[in-house]
């Protein structure tokens, strides 16, 4: 009699499961009361965007005052590039851990702890003397760990709150703050160095802003978003039905392990190829973000526009200009990419990866031209660098949206974490250091001069243009699989 009742209950749950799962897919969230209006969701996004802004400001403070840091610690190009490489390595190694935690535990607590941690470490790093370069490197690595907690989990909260159309727009706004924060990092660092005459003050502003972000996070971000909770309920019902069918009388929830999730993602070719495309983007972005101000400074020295940096505080005008260019091109690029994706999806289901492939190829071409004209005309170099950054920025929100619709909701944090791991391991974790090492090697084989100092950086930078072309090819491969993988995820 009990077995019949259980079978009857499971039959009813099985009928309701399809409706529940479909509702989870279509609706932005499952409302539980009238006290959770849509305005609250937009406030949550605003807090997450503000924290994302600070996140990337802190990320690019070091490149903004790279000349001062290089002089303060008496570093060559290789050791200077190591600063950003250590940051990215720690960031990417921590990302899978936070992805695992984010899929299973309270994401609000993880986000808050991450913001508090990197803010404190950044503040502490501003008091390190020139005798302890290794501690300064270590501090950047610790900041990378704190940053990973945010970058891994925040996009999944946005994905929980909005359905597909609004999700793309909201993610676009969220990712606009990557280039905006990056650009403001340059501006903040260069501006504080100019105003105070001491570059250490650049590391004392973002911790204060991080404290405000932590307060807003505690007050406004909910402990759990409804869409994710509904998805877990639907998966729980599914697991109960499957186990009960295999063993009548047994009532438990089936769970997959992290390894099973990784294996499943490795079979998702859209996820694999788009992640490799993002890796190429990260490689180029990391190299540009670290070395462009220094490269342009050396070009100006060769042209006689500025004198060599021998005074107490180095000229930071290139960082200020590059920061402004990064902000402007980032905003335009992300908006243009989201709008192009929204319009072209209506006529082509493969629009997203094709947009990424096209923009990546054009970006590589612009960057190559910028490298070639830098020695003759700084203005032309800035213009082509701006176009290169513009077309790179087109892809930020589109690539993340690809991941979110080819991967099931319960694997999204893990997928984002793996994408961060791969893209940074093979991308911007190594590119700043690799460019510096190649530059050092070229200088070592030639007479020491300002001309060869510029040429060494120019020749090593050409690698970025070729990597950009490979990235375009990876996104093109994504277009061959994206329709099939999207349908499988929706099922």
TrEMBL record:
Listed InterPro entries: MFS (IPR011701), MFS_dom (IPR020846), MFS_spinster-like (IPR044770), MFS_trans_sf (IPR036259)
Membrane topology: Multi-pass membrane protein
Keyword Transmembrane helix: yes
Transmembrane domains' residue ranges: 42-62, 82-102, 109-128, 134-159, 171-189, 201-221, 271-292, 320-341, 353-373, 379-404, 416-439, 459-482
Domain Major facilitator superfamily (MFS) profile: 44-483
Places the protein is found: Membrane
Pfam families according to UniProt: MFS_1
Annotated GO CC locations: membrane
Keyword annotations of the record: Membrane, Transmembrane, Transmembrane helix, Transport
GO MF annotation terms: transmembrane transporter activity
Signal peptide segment: none
Family: Belongs to the major facilitator superfamily. Spinster (TC 2.A.1.49) family.
This protein's name: Protein spinster 3
Lineage: Eukaryota, Metazoa, Chordata, Craniata, Vertebrata
